[in-house]
Specification:
By secondary structure, this protein is mainly beta. The protein has a domain at 9-166: Cupredoxins -  blue copper proteins (Immunoglobulin-like, Sandwich), CATH 2.60.40.420. 8% of the residues lie in helices and 33% in strands. The protein is built from seven helices and 34 strands. The strands form seven sheets. Strands 23, 24, 25, 27, 29, 30 and 32 form a seven-stranded mixed β-sheet that branches. Strands 13-12-15-20-17-18 form a six-stranded mixed β-sheet, with no helix packed on it. β17 and β18 (291-298) form a beta hairpin. The longest helix is centred in the first third of the chain and has 10 residues, at 186-195. It is globular. 49% of the residues are buried. InterPro entries: Cu-oxidase-like_N, Cu-oxidase_2nd, Cu-oxidase_C, Cu-oxidase_fam, Cu-R_CopA, Cu_oxidase_CS, Cu_oxidase_Cu_BS, Cupredoxin. This is Copper resistance system multicopper oxidase. Keywords: Copper, Metal-binding, Oxidoreductase. Residues 63-164, 195-332, 461-581 form the Plastocyanin-like domain. One of its GO terms (molecular function) is oxidoreductase activity.
Amino acid sequence: MTASFQVGRRGFLAGSGLVAGAMAVPGWARGQSLTHARRGFGEVSGERIALSIGDHHFTTGERSGHAVAVNGSVPGPLVRLREGQDVTIDVTNRLSEDSSIHWHGLLLPFQYDGVPGISFPGIRPGETFRYSFPVRQNGTYWWHSHSGLQEQQGLYGPLVIDAAEPDSRYDRDYVVLLSEFTPMHPHEIARMLAVGEHYFNRQMTTLSDGSMSAADRLMWGRMRMNPRDISDVGAATYTYLVNGHGPADDLAFAFAPGERVRLRVINGSAMTFFNVRIPGTAMTVIAADGQEVEPVAVDEFQIGTAETYDVIVTPQAGTHALVAEAMDRSGMGIATLTSQAGAIAAPPPLREPVTLTMADMGMGGMDEMDHGSGGVDHAAMGHTMPAAADAPPMDHGGMDHSMRDTSLLPPDVAVGPGIDMVAPMPVDRMDFPGLGLDTVPHRVLRYTDLAARDANPHRMPERQLEIHLTGNMERYMWSFDGRRFNAVTDDPIRFGFDERVRVKLVNDTMMAHPIHLHGHFFELVNGAGMMNQPRKHTLVVQPGGTATFDLTADEPGDWAFHCHLLYHMHAGMMQTVTVRPFPAAEAGA
């Protein structure tokens, strides 16, 4: 296989599971018995590693069903490497359908990135594919399938690259891999989401809900939206896992009093944002997406799907609940940090469900204007405000129209049925800590807290690119710039090799989207000094807001660029990024 590998649109769609087609019915679906997958994972390391993908049965709590396991476990094994080594990984596919493994966050030749139809053809049933590459970095990462919806079924696992030099900042080191399990087949979930986007939402407001005023209820009704449309799938369908263990498993991490414990937190879920906290114990964030940052002391942080954060804690003697609460607050993953063998901490109760606000609809400062003005300088806006006692209630009557004003979109956005909302006044929301965390009474991580520990060589961007995250929530259509992936597979986003580009992402939807670029790290434009912009591979763009990063396109090849909410990607929010030297005529233009 060479770097010139290409595939047509039909070939990509067939390999990725994005079009329907006849396929053999797998043995597990025909009632054949399956081996039970182990909960949790072992470790593989060294210069040669073998991974085997197969059908298994998986049980957690009261939920039991089919899973795709690697080396017999869900999650698959921890792949542990060392910075500077060369590694060869043989992946054998024992399924009855094509499969793949993508090394999330790794810098490597694009033909080993593991995306069928973009970087390689995929791994056919009964075949083995050899990944071979030098390890150019260190940090906390993970791996997962990029074929169909196999990731939801259990085909994922952690990946840790130890630094070439020892790190004396901690005494113990644990991986904390967050995910979900459901016995429902992922294609059935996708089908039900397309039938009705609220199908799995059990947090919806009702007519009897007294938390909303009549005016607010009328406003949301006119927009045909629900203020608790936070997550597409919640705890009514999912059991939330920590290292493959459900809440009933009493997973524990041992420590001795006074020890510094490094927790490598990985969000390996298909669809869930988690709010992570250890009540009563502070955390110090030292890395984001595997990249070192200046230490930040926090009590809680939100981790989007596909992100990683490394934290150091020094817990007091006793037991401490490690809580990963789903963003919609429908359920949680739970583990215990304990200095007492056999002792388990009691989990805290779930908090009240989160409610969306005007800012989540792309109304910028309207939230503050609608709730006591929030310090907005109205004189500077060219008008004055009446006294509060005389102020009429805000008229939301025409808002349903303004939320779909496609004249606000740039001309290169394709307007059609795939867009049911346009953010009227999107603002940079990189200082927002995440839905539900803006009102908690303790320290919460924000992107604006992050600064690279080591200086990044900085160049001013040579051009700017704006990409709109678009969707039709009712029809479950998701896209970039109004174009779903099946319409743009032969029209990639093009970057010149070593080109420096400032990319602005505009979220024209009411859902947070974790946007991931394969094969690169970009630098967040978050207010840190130019030399210390933090590097990430996945960026959460808040509802109705914007986020900006600087990219040096220095990894040649074809790379996937997509929302890492699995069913959003499956529904079309994906593109190909091509990094090639520009032709001389273009370069000189």
